[in-house]
C-alpha cells in the first residue's frame, strides 16, 4: 500500500507561504491520521489555512499507482 499526499502550491503562494502552509498541512494531517482505519481507499481533501481545498491524501494499493 502507498500513502499519497498531493498539495497544489501554485495558487499564488509565495515560497514563504508554501513553506508555512505545507508545514501546517503535514502537522495537521499527520496528527489526524489516527481517525482513519488506514486501509486502501481511505483519504481526505486537504485544506489550506483559508479553508480552500488545495489537495488530497489517500491510501492506494501498490498496483494502483
Strand content: 25-35%
Q: How widely separated are the two ends?
A: 10 Å
Structural class: alpha+beta
Number of helices: 1
Strand order of the largest sheet: 1-3-2
Question: What is the chains' assembly state?
Answer: single chain
Coarse shape: elongated
Give the biggest sheet: 3 strands, antiparallel
Which parts are unreliable, with pLDDT below 50 for 5 consecutive residues or more? none
> How many beta strands in the DSSP annotation?
3
Mean pLDDT: 88
Radius of gyration: 13 Å
From N to C, what is the helix and strand string?
Answer: EHEE
Total domain units: 1
Helix content: 25-40%
Structure, described:
The protein has 1 helix and 3 strands; from the N terminus they run E-H-E-E. It has 65 residues and is α+β, with helices and mostly antiparallel strands. It has one domain. Strand 2 and strand 3 form a beta hairpin. The longest helix is centred in the middle third of the chain and has 18 residues.
From the structure above, extract its key features.
1 helix; 65 residues; elongated; three-stranded antiparallel sheet; alpha+beta; 28% helix
Amino acid at each position: 500500500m502507498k500513502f499519497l499526499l498531493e498539495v497544489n502550491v501554485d495558487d499564488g503562494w509565495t515560497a514563504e507561504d508554501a513553506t508555512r502552509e505545507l508545514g501546517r498541512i503535514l502537522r495537521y494531517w499527520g496528527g489526524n491520521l489516527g481517525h482513519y482505519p488506514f486501509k486502501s481507499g481511505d483519504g481526505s481533501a486537504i485544506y489550506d489555512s483559508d479553508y480552500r481545498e488545495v489537495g488530497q491524501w489517500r491510501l492506494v494499493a501498490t498496483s494502483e499507482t
